Amino acid sequence: MTFEHYRTHLSTLMARYSDALAKSGHDQIVICAGSQVVVAEDDRTYPYTPLAFAQQWLPYDLHPDTFIVFRPGEKPRLLWPARADFWHLTPTTPDGEWTALWQVEAATSLKDWLPALVGNIAWLGPVHPQLDLQRVDVNPTALKAELIYSRARKTEFEIQCLQAANDKAVVGHRAAGLAFLNGQSEAEIYRAYLHYSCQLESQEPYSGIIALNESAATLHYERRRFERPVEHRTLLIDAGANVNGYASDITRTHTKGSALFLDLANGIERLSLSLTDQAKPGIAWSDIHHGALTGVAQLLLDSGICRHSVETQLAQGIPQTFFPHGIGHLLGLQVHDVGGHQQDVEGRLAAHEDYPFLRLTRDLQPGMVVTVEPGLYFIPMLLERMDQENPDHGCDLDLIETLKPYGGIRYEDNVVVSSGVSTNLTVNAFDRLAE
Question: If you write DSSP's letter for every residue of 150-214 in order, what string do you get?
């Protein structure tokens, strides 16, 4: 990430916040990164994740009890936690070329700086134990809605961070694929992923999914078994990485032993790349999802899994039995980034009438970063429901029975929407690694 890209990013943030503060009638804003949370009736803490609004301002991973103060027309202030501690690592003064753009100040308590703030003050983030609630306006609704809406469009600095997060995760994905081919367990595959992506489990942007065989039919599979299965048929790995708080979210499916299942996996990959090409400014995200359902229906027809035409399958909702989730979501400082249902800066929300589970209902805009993640799964519960509720489903249940042991397929890339050719950050990372 270059200094100039960060400078432009910071200028963009300052302009966004200046406009939002002017509209809300606030003179300045305090952004609280949050504090460590202690486990109930214990003296240990949960893994710390800074508030995304705070992390967005700075090019390093924030410490607990970091604060940003911004007043339009002035340099932003960074209050870093200058505490002395022999039990834990002590934060040090943030450094780097970027600090020239900031007022960097050490602080051990809110009392060091908060009483000096004047005017109508907005507070964004969790309420700090030392905060005097009479002095600030906590998380004002209109101001927060505008800031959420603008986060969907990424700056070049943010896109660079997201590309770096993809690069980091892809190294781990390659190692996990090799571990699968070498017959290792879910836990061993996960260990390889973490090692080669240079992460601890607590540093992942979300809990990585490592699913072997039938377990690939559980969309958010939580276990990582230590026992090696007798046969390795499928690995579905859904895992990402963090860079400066920005997340990658990547899924790949590896398989061996079934020519039909391999053909289906290759078909889902082709479908994903086709949908990525359709992700253009002005396109409704629901249209991309409909394209995914159509593509799944075509695969079911071509493979002999369902004898009905694509049109009949869509009319009966057959593809949803095999592809029950949405095609993707906004990606950024959070894996499921905020603002997907928000239609305007005022905060109006809208779900999709036909696809109420979609996480994104806005039309695509330049600078949005989205995941594109079609899938095809053999989920016993959904297959049984289809068979019971629709006797004319047209599916070959005997053929499906041979595919159940393989679980399912998902292919997920991270894509930057642009007015020209959209950029596939994930494919870029895999291509570079292959060089």
Answer: HTTS--HHHHHHHHHHHHHHHHHHHHHHHHHHTT--HHHHHHHHHHHTT--GGGSSSPPEEEEGG
